[in-house]
Q: What sequence folds into this?
């Protein structure tokens, strides 16, 4: 049986799976963000409903043979810096499926839908994410401008890395 790898838009009708999966994502990120769970035993989430309600935000489940394995969340103006068209805000794949190119396939699908100037930010200590983006963009021969910075999350100051690059239709066809 051939594998069917796809991305599927997250909407109001499948938001419950997204909210549940997002909490797993926050759990994973807590290693870097240093956040703790709230009194209900879950991580405090900002309101993520704009992702599936605002047409300038592009949330997708990452799926394999109809099974949800993660998500990729893309933003556009006014949710990005002035010199940016799109940002991959969040990318999450369940641990069992990492190392299978499922994340790379999802990102490639996003790049084919949305070409333009990108910005991707991550925690500097998230070596796996930094390595993923560095390797992926290098394999596509996409020049990258790397910027280091800091973010404060609930009193914790955390080092970040931002990668700015441009994805063009022509580049993806090569």
A:
């Amino acid at each position: 049986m051939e594998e069917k790898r796809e991305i599927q838009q997250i909407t109001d009708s499948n938001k419950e799976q997204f909210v549940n999966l997002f909490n797993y994502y926050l759990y994973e990120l807590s290693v870097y963000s240093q956040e703790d769970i709230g009194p209900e035993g879950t991580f405090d989430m900002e309101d993520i409903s704009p992702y599936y309600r605002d047409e300038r935000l592009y949330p997708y489940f990452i799926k394999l043979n109809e099974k949800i394995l993660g998500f990729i969340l893309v933003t556009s103006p006014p949710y990005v810096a002035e010199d940016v068209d799109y940002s991959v805000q969040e990318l999450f794949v369940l641990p069992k499926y990492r190392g299978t190119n499922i994340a790379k396939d999802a990102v490639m699908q996003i790049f084919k839908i949305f070409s333009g100037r990108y910005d991707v930010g991550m925690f500097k200590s998230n070596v796996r994410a930094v390595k993923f983006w560095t390797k992926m963009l290098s394999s596509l021969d996409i020049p990258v401008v790397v910027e280091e910075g800091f973010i404060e999350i609930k009193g914790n100051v955390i080092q970040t890395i931002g990668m700015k690059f441009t994805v063009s239709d022509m580049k993806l066809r090569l």
About this structure: The radius of gyration is 16 Å. The first strand starts at residue 5 and ends at 9. The longest helix spans residues 15-33. Residues 91 and 116 are 18 Å apart (CA to CA).
